[in-house]
Amino acid sequence: MTLAEDLFAEGEPEREFDPGIAGRLPRKRVAGGALIRDHAGRVLFVVPGYKPLLDIPGGMAEADESPLAACRREVQEEIGLDLDIGRLLVVDWVPAHGVWPDGVMFVFDGGQLDERSAAALQPTDPELRGLRFLAFDDAVPLLRPSMARRIRAALDALDENQPCYTEFGRKQ
């Protein structure tokens, strides 16, 4: 079934018992990122031009877009690959920080690129200054601590063949 068919099968939307309550409910940021590795097992990082630290390919979900669809779209936009994004590795809740509200970050398995594909990879998004494949330990100083914890959890999830839930990158 398609999403449209599933929504149709749900029937009419539930009416608000208390008019206006839906508009007062909190909103969260939602993002989807891909853990992509090269033939040597190094992780692919993007070098953003709009913030000082590295990130993994992916980004914020748009209105009415799933985290997986956002991940696929952002990977295509950022590195020009239409990857078969795989299974869920991590769901990470991130608390509000500064101007940013809290959010839920999803990390999916982006697979492993062969040597030729990895070497030919170039950023396709003007917001990026570059791409880097790095071993996890080499990447840690170039990441926010919470991102390092999230990526460590994603690598562990790959090894354990089990997704995990984290809060600010810390396993629960």
UniProtKB/TrEMBL annotation:
Instruction: Give cofactor(s), names only.
Output: Mg(2+)
Q: Which PROSITE patterns match?
A: NUDIX, NUDIX_BOX
User: What keywords are assigned to this protein?
Assistant: Hydrolase, Magnesium
Q: Which Gene3D superfamilies match?
A: Nucleoside Triphosphate Pyrophosphohydrolase
Keyword Hydrolase attached: yes
Molecular function per GO: hydrolase activity
The protein's matches in InterPro entries, at most eight in alphabetical order, are given as: NUDIX_hydrolase-like_dom_sf (IPR015797), NUDIX_hydrolase_CS (IPR020084), NUDIX_hydrolase_dom (IPR000086)
The protein's matches in Pfam families, at most eight in alphabetical order, are given as: NUDIX (PF00293)
Question: Where's the Nudix hydrolase domain?
Answer: 26-159
Q: Which CDD domains match?
A: NUDIX_Hydrolase
- PANTHER family linked: GDP-MANNOSE MANNOSYL HYDROLASE
Tell me the protein's name.
NUDIX hydrolase
- What organism does this protein naturally occur in? Micromonospora cathayae
